[in-house]
Amino acid sequence: MKKFGKFLFGLTATAAAGAGLYYAYKKYVEKADSEEEDDFEDDLDEFELDDEESPKAPEYVSINNFGENVEKVAENVAEKAEDFAEKAADAAEGAVEAVKDAFSE
Fold first, then answer.
1. 52 domain residue, yes or no
2. Contact (CB, 8 A) for 49 and 55
3. How many other C-beta atoms lie within 10 A of the C-beta of residue 48?
């Protein structure tokens, strides 16, 4: 029973020491790291643009020909749909012939 008591006391002491180290780390080390980041943010406030580096206005895309573009796309889609339908029909006919040949033998 004495050995178990010593083990339990040692485990408790180790856990308390670990918790104390963790607390000290959080309080002092991370605080120092956050102060360094604040210095970096202060440097950004001092940044100024030169006259040559002035921000440019964004370029906009015109949508005046929107209707014409839609018609062209619709025609293109219709042509591709017709081509696909013809290929699908040819493939279906080939499949039907293959099934007929397989059952006729």
1. no
2. yes
3. 6
Q: Is residue 94 part of a domain?
A: yes
Q: Looking at the 3D structure of the chain, how many domains does it have?
A: 2
Give the DSSP letter string of 68-79: HHHHHHHHHHHH
First to last CA, the chain: 89
**9-32 burial string, b = 16+ CB within 10 Å, else e?**
eeeeeeeeeeeeeeeeeeeeeeee
Within a domain: 58: no
Mean pLDDT by 10 residues, the chain (105 residues): 88 92 83 59 55 68 70 88 90 87 79
Residue keyed to tokens 């002092």: 28
Residue 57 inside a domain? The answer is no
Residues 42 and 78 in one domain: no
Is the Cα dihedral 72, 74, 77, 78 positive or negative? negative
DSSP state of 51: S
Q: Look-up: residue for tokens 């006391």?
A: 9
Q: State which residues form the domain around 41.
A: 1-46
